[in-house]
């Protein structure tokens, strides 16, 4: 019999992994988001190429996803890719040369700009790439999709 303290410790340590967010990005073609997991459902809107979406649950060939605004919808799983992107969630987010506010600013990104997630290794900063090739660091609280 496993001592109850040991079992409780294992469950507590395993909990964060069970609640980790699963993010995917819209693939090379835009996807339609529906209110139900069928093409016969009401079309809510079209998600553009590269847009990050949080996968809430899978249901056969369909996934229920959440977008940056918190809206829930269904889309076909085949339209999503594993490559991670983030979207700028604050107006005028600065992309720095290094993960430091005093380093040179490489660009300023408007709210809604999609950036490729290159390295999410730190809590405060993430390394990103703009589609124009600019590679730098943005504060993790300035983007959505982590």
UniProtKB/TrEMBL annotation:
Domain of life: Bacteria
UniProt KW Signal keyword: yes
InterPro entries, alphabetized: DUF1058
Keywords for the protein's UniProt record, in alphabetical order: Signal
Cleavable signal peptide: 1-20
One Pfam family recorded for the sequence: SH3_4
Protein name: SH3 domain-containing protein
Organism: Telluria aromaticivorans
